[in-house]
Amino acid sequence: MLGAALASAAxxxxxxxxxxxxxxxxSAGDFRGSVQSAELRPLTSATLALPDLGRxxxxxxxxxxxxxDLPPGDHRVEVE
Length: 80
Known about the structure:
Elements: H1 4-15, H2 19-24, E1 29-34, E2 47-50, E3 55-58, E4 64-70, E5 78-79
Antiparallel strand pairs: 1-4, 2-3, 2-5
């Protein structure tokens, strides 16, 4: 597992959306963002997981990820 700073980066990406919109959302949504190192460099090939949903994404060369069609609700995010 990468450090807490990296996990925080992933959670910060989730927070970029409209929190009120996320809470009120009743249909599937998308989750996109980027993962960076403590030195603010993009992390390539990092695994971002939502274990309760069994969903994974791998970051690209720019550290970006994209997960589509996620159900509404609170989900734990893990980054490795």
